Structure formats: structure tokens, C-alpha cells
């Protein structure tokens, strides 16, 4: 939910809508941007109840403004997806569903997952891949997960990213391929665009935010508003 991620979602959705509808069309959406430091504090202290309460509160505002659906511009925010659906009585366009459908379409079964600790450890992502789509999911070891998580929150929002930071992410990716024998890797963090290039990938690799933004385009191109929160 950093401003960089929000801007990327906004740009991509509008680009797709303009391409689909032509002319000077743009997405009909409502945007609620949050202070990233507040969200990061709740996530790093694993106060997911506090995070959920915050998102539901803002979701209520957007529903009152007329939003018929919710899309969340962050992986970890999807831990609040079920609560948002229940308390707002609105659908949530779920990033895991969009991603899993592409993985299955590619014929893959054993998936490596790289992201924040919450994405790699909490049921909202891993269990959904396993239980809803029948995928085998591998994640880095505990020490690597902790290091990756710390670097995501402390380094990837900086203007300049050090070479050793990039290498740490590349090492975590490589360990999934070499040591755990995954058929593909899901990058569950939008900011990974800052440290990975296409030539770095040694197996099929899915950036889950690509599919979430494209999924939101259908709603943004319709006659109703899309809440981009």
C-alpha cells in the first residue's frame, strides 16, 4: 500500500481501460490512499486485527461513496478480505485468485512463494493456494523469510537500493528453485519490481500484482465505480 504501489495500480488500470474503450476513456474508480507507515507498523507488529479494523473503516467510507467492489493494492491487506466481504457486503477482487488461475493455466503444481512474512506464513495466501486450487506451496526457510520481510519494509521504499539488498532477494529466489525444486515462483510483493528483472528468472515467474491490476480493469471499464483502496 505504499504510494509507489498505489500509483502503479492506478496507472495500469487506466492504461488498460483506455486501450479497451479507446478515445479519451479512463477508469471510473474511487481511490483511498493510506499512510504507509501506519499500515507497515501494524503489519510488522503482526497486529492484523488493527489492520483489518482500519481497512474496514475506510471501506465503509468508500461504500457510502458508491463503490460496488473492493480491490486492495497490497498482498498483506488481503488478510482482511473475508472481513471486508462480511462487514461491507461487497465483493473483494482477490489477488490470490487471479494469480492461482494463471499458475494453473500454465500447468504448474509446485509453486515457490516469495513475499512478506505474512504472505508466506499466513493462511490468507498459502492456504488459499493449497485448498482452493490444489497447489503445493514452498517458501524459504524461517531465517530467510525474516530477512526478506525486513528488507521489504525497510529498504524497498528507499530511492536507492543497495546491491547486497538485491542479492538477498535473488538468493531467496534461487533457493526456492535449487533447494525446493519448485516449477514456478510467485512474487507476492509489488516492490519486487525494483530488484528483479525478467532476465533474473530461471523458472516461470508470476508477479501477482500484474493479474490483480488487470482483474481490476474489467470493473474499471464498466459503468460502475471501482474502489481502489
Automatic annotation (TrEMBL):
Pfam families: Asp_Glu_race. One of its GO terms (molecular function) is amino-acid racemase activity. The keyword RNA-binding does not apply. Gene3D superfamilies: 3.40.50.1860. Keywords: Isomerase. Belongs to the aspartate/glutamate racemases family. This is Aspartate racemase. It comes from Cladophialophora yegresii CBS 114405.
Amino acid at each position: 500500500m505504499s504510494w509507489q504501489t498505489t500509483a502503479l495500480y492506478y496507472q495500469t488500470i487506466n492504461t488498460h481501460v483506455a486501450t479497451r474503450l479507446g478515445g479519451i476513456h479512463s477508469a471510473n474508480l474511487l481511490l483511498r490512499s493510506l499512510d504507509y507507515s501506519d499500515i507497515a507498523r501494524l503489519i510488522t507488529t503482526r497486529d492484523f486485527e488493527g489492520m483489518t479494523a482500519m481497512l474496514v473503516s475506510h471501506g465503509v467510507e468508500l461504500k457510502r461513496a458508491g463503490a460496488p467492489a473492493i480491490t486492495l493494492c497490497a498482498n498483506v491487506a488481503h488478510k482482511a478480505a473475508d472481513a471486508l466481504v462480511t462487514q461491507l457486503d461487497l465483493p473483494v477482487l482477490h489477488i490470490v485468485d487471479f494469480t492461482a488461475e494463471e499458475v494453473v493455466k500454465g500447468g504448474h503444481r509446485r509453486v515457490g512463494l516469495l513475499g512478506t512474512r505474512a504472505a508466506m506464513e499466513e493462511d490468507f495466501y498459502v492456504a488459499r493456494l493449497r485448498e482452493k486450487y490444489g497447489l503445493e506451496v514452498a517458501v524459504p526457510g524461517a531465517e530467510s523469510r525474516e530477512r526478506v520481510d525486513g528488507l521489504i519494509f525497510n529498504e524497498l521504499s528507499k530511492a536507492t537500493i543497495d546491491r547486497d539488498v538485491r542479492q538477498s532477494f535473488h538468493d531467496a529466489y534461487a533457493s526456492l528453485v535449487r533447494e525446493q525444486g519448485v516449477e514456478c515462483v510467485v512474487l507476492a510483493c509489488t516492490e519486487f519490481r525494483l530488484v528483479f528483472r525478467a532476465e533474473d528468472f530461471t523458472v516461470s515467474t508470476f508477479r501477482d500484482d500484474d493479474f490483480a491490476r488487470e482483474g481490476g480493469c474489467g470493473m474499471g471499464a464498466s459503468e460502475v465505480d471501482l474502489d481502489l483502496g
